[in-house]
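FOLDING PROBLEM:
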Amino acid sequence: MEKGDILTLVGGLVVVVVIALYMNPPSFSGGAVPVTPTPEIIATVTPVMMATTAVPVTTAVPPFPTTVTPRPDDPPYRIFYTSTPFSNPRFKIPENMETFGASDIPLRTEAMVPFAYIEDTRGGLSQPFQVPYPVWVLNTTVIANRTPQYGNFRMALCYANNGTIIEGDEILNRGSSYRIVQTSNTDLYFIITTAYIDRYRITLETPRSYYNSYRP
């Protein structure tokens, strides 16, 4: 190799070394030489986001409270007089009403519910009716304000099939009476006579427990 060629080769190496030192100057602090991360290195250290599945949270919703509305009481129905009184097996009240005794003691164990009534100024025989309650009462009131000293009211409750009297009552002048009856689910009718009274009313009532259990 010629001498000139050697000098040219050495000069080229020097230029390469100088450029290399300029591009990557050495650190004299004794630390590690910083390395510029390449795209390949960045790709390897990129954190991987783990896919998560959202779990729905079910919140128990308490049911709305249900309110049961009780069935309201039915209005009392009216019992009317019949237009054919002589077709009944009995149409006259016995002369002696004392056999039925005095008024019964009112039931005080629970509230009474009216379910039927009959009222008028005159007497007569009622249409047949039925009562579904095993125990019920006849609550009678007689008004005679014009001539109370002459007032007279008489009543007989009878079976419609044979005319047998179940219960009877007599109120002289004016006042009230209370009769307990224990018959049900059969045809009944009233025989009523009046004299010198303004008006009467018989209300049919039954205890609340029987009304709630047996009413249609």
Q: What stands out?
A: Helices lie at 3-23, 39-45, 208-214. The radius of gyration is 55 Å. Strands lie at 77-78, 112-120, 124-125, 136-143, 152-159, 165-172, 175-181, 188-195, 199-207. The chain has three helices and nine strands.
